[in-house]
Amino acid sequence: MYMRNSYKALSIAIASALAMSANAADGVKRLPTELQGLNYNKPLIEGKLSSSIPTPESILGFPVGQRAATPAQITEALAAWQKVSDRMQVIEYAQSHEGRPLHYVVISSAKNLANTDQIKSDLARLANPVNLSSSEEKRIIDRLPAVSWLAYTIHGNEASGSDAALAAIYQLIASQEQDIETLLDKSVIIIDPLMNPDGRARFTKQLQQRRGVAPNVDTQSTLHTDAWATGRSNHYFFDLNRDFTLGVHPETQGIVKSINEWNPQLMIDAHEMGSMDSYLFGLAREPVNKNLSSHIRKWGTVFEQDQADALDKENWPYYMGEWLENLYPGYSSYAAFRGTIHILYEQARIKEDGVMQPNGRIVSYAEGVDKQLVSSIANIKTLAKHSKDIYRDFVKDKRQLISKDSPFADQTFAILPTENHQRMAKFVNLMQLQGFELHQSTKPIKVSKAKNQLGEQVKTELPAGTLLIRNRQPQGRLVSAMLEFDAKITDEVLVEERQRLLRNGSSLMYDATAWNISMMYGLEALTVKKDINEDIRPYTAPEQRPPIIKKENALAYVIDGQDDASVGFAARLMERGVTTRIIDKETVLDDVNISRGSIIVSRYDNEFFAGDLDAVVEKTAKEMHVTTHAVAGGHGEGDLPDFGGSHFKVLAQPRIAILNGSGVSSLDFGAIWHSIDSNLGIRHSHIDSDYFNWTDLRRYNTLVLPSTWRSKLGKSELSAINNWVESGGTLIAIDGSVPQLTNPKAKLSQVRQIKDAFKEIEQYDIALQREWLAQQDNYPEISNIWQHDAVDKVKYPWDAAAKPLSEKQLKKQDEWLAQFRTSGAIVAARTDQKHWLTFGAPPVIPVLTARDPILMSKGRVETAVRFGSYQEMDASAWKKHVKEAKDKPVSRKVGWATLPEKQELTLRMSGLLWPEASKRLANSAYLTRERKGNGQIILFSGQPVFRGSTLATNRLLLNAIVYGSGLGARQVVTNL
Question: Which residues form the signal peptide (predicted)?
Fold first, then answer.
């Protein structure tokens, strides 16, 4: 039995549709007056529809496209349709942080649905054609249907995609039209209607709260704006459309696993953009990642044309590629690096009622939904028409990737062994999530052509157990995109980028230009110009280490501070009431090597602990997946520290507050929140910035200020923070929140932004030389110690310094340099290996930096991390400098800073860093710590937890949060 479409022209006569009403004093419900142009008279779904399939309206309570369906309503609709349709299967592939299900729907003919396992198996054979004969390839392609993946609303407040998904699902399972039935015979269509249920739930709740009786088309009204806790992001305020190559969150982990299982030919990703815009779709313009296959662009143009034709028939305006770039591989377009054709939709954001655009036309929400729907149907029809040829190009590319003619044939990424077991485990898990082939060296391997992360060509020997990721593999394009040290950008793009910066300060770059995973994770890696295939074996996970290695008469337990998990171990023990120590200098106790930053739990300290100390230590070690070693002796070998000496510091339990709310970057706040939850799992409080003046800071000994968009704290707030710090609090400020603290008028921090340091630039230069000298192991002056005559010559740090520029010249120079923004580059930074903030960090770490404040430090400010790594110059290069200087001191500067004798400064590791940006950044401070009264101020110039994946700098933040209250404050703030 058939029925005609019950969606009479979807007339958004919002009066009845919104089911909103208000009773006047006389008890009469007032309906809104008419609004000319608001009605959308085109039906979303036309044609013969099966009466056995419930309409969306019968499930939702309103016509699809009239308002934004909630996640619960979407789930309800999928369940209802699954019960009655033989054209669909609903698969739950993940659950969000808040426990909401994520689904994809497989839609096809009943015959194809009964054969999905074979279809996936065939697709996997094409994706990895090792030993696949040409005849078998042909047979597989001949029998395979077209496979598409349609993904909607990864940004929860970009609503129209999910409602278009509901309309598409209904049309495909209910339509009795011949073209749809033929399409389903030839296709498997996978629809993910909602990739971010937590964000959409937040967004739809806000809509409900702001919805009125009368429709509102004014974009300045709160209905069309977002609260601080925007629905764009997930529970932890992460932008999930940056997470596909990072795999931090369950939502994207589930999508990646599912896409990798299916290997679809096509992926569309439905988004929204500014409400005054029209509709963007299609392929990206430069900069485009060079690891993409040429067949992606070849077929993309075909899809573009068919989609444009479909939109032309509806008389809808659109454009392609004007601002869309595809350099960063972490969007949903990551699938293109696997060989999937990816198409982005960007529909003008309407938000239910409709929007009055500049031309005077009201664009309804239903129209926005319709554009997404029409585009989706057009794309899957194009795929069905060209599917076989697309499969043939796909397999051709995969065969090349595994051959000796692969563009990546002579390249292997080597990740060197580390004692930071947690960090290496996270890296391996991410590589396995992406489906990469992993190997390990079975014995040391000598390599003659390798490049390290500082860009140096080296000859070296890879230790046994080195993790090897050969680029000659089926997923070689994605391997290269994630692990290559530099994503190259064409000269033409760089010329245009520089022109834009000089003309008006705008940029072509939509995202970071550096994202190398080994650098972000802080793992030492090499790019080896060779396909290493000897003395290797497939990777196997290391044997699970016992949580505790006990010993009779043990006086203490020790966990290695090189492992990031040691910080969480200490934090959780303190929360359980266990007195915990940390060592600031390496030692050996009872044959156990104890590194700087290791955690010690002694029986002496916990003599009156109420519970079973051994059981609590073991339980905590299991939770953190670490091994604790018992030691039965407290005497350090030789002159190494003994237990009980000053190097074993007692920690104080952190009581943490984090500022959030208006004026605070939700992304940075969410990253810090997620870091504490995922790495520590300890209690902490979130303080609303709007109520800061009413907050009793005495409850906390650690306050974190995430990056802010603008100066949020006024005089009263800064005064309260100052008093709290002087009483013993640890203040940690990050990126955008730093300038209000370093402003001289605030009288909080002695650190200055570079623009405020020009009057004393020579003192900053001398302080820098002093830092360098304090870290040396060899001093020429020692040879003069024992002479009896007065010394007539002393070497001063300013002897080799060139005369500094005047304040006016420095200001002029800085204004010029500041134009050339740092475009999310990874740079080298040196760490003070005697500072507690750098526990677990090697001498040089990668730091991701963007347009962050440039900080200057001197005097009593301790600089734990500075930008730039000193490298000793080649002897011939140094002789050349000396010769050029003749009898004068050899004076070499980078920006404001004098370089030490025989040293060069290495800065850029990956990404776009203009020479001007490099000069401005060099030798500035990344991480500082200073005492103030009984407390301390810790400043990060940039965001240490970028997208939950910059583990090298995240460790520094964890150190500050967990150890600061015990190591940096003179007294612990008492609890009320």
Answer: 1-24
Q: Please give the torsion angle defined by the CA atoms of residues 437, 443, 449 and 453, in that order, rounded to the nearest 10 degrees.
A: 70
User: 449 and 322 in one domain?
Assistant: no
Question: Which residue range forms the structural domain that includes residue 809?
Answer: 656-775+799-968
Residues 458 and 555 in one domain: no
Residues 133, 137, 140, 142: is their CA dihedral positive or negative? negative
pLDDT band for position 711 (cuts 50, 70, 90): low
Whether residue 864 is found in the same domain as residue 943: yes
Does residue 142 sit in helix, strand or coil?
helix
Residues 201 and 323 in one domain: yes
102 close to 197: Cβ distance less than 8 angstroms: yes
Q: Each residue of 191-231: pLDDT tens digit? A: 999 999 999 999 999 988 888 888 888 888 888 888 888 89
Residues 383 and 266 grouped into a single domain: yes
Q: Distance of CA 846 to CAs 169, 412, 869, Å?
A: 46, 21, 10
Q: How many other C-beta atoms are found inside a 10 Å radius of the C-beta of residue 299? A: 22
Can you give the pTM of this predicted structure? 0.95
Domain boundary among 599, 630, 648: 648
Q: What is the 3-state secondary structure (H, E, C) of 83-107?
A: HHCCCEEEEEEEECCCCCEEEEEEE
Which tokens in the block code for residue 163? 């409602």
User: For 893-896, which contacts have Cβ atoms below 8 Å and span 24 or more sequence positions?
Assistant: 893/801, 893/802, 894/868, 894/919, 894/922, 894/923, 895/919, 895/920, 895/922, 895/923, 896/754, 896/761, 896/764, 896/765, 896/804, 896/810, 896/923
Strands (E), 695-804: 702-705, 730-734, 752-753
Total structural domains in the chain?
4
Residue 745 in 3-state DSSP?
helix
Query: In 3D, which of 814, 644, 798, 672 has the Cα closest to residue 732?
Result: 672
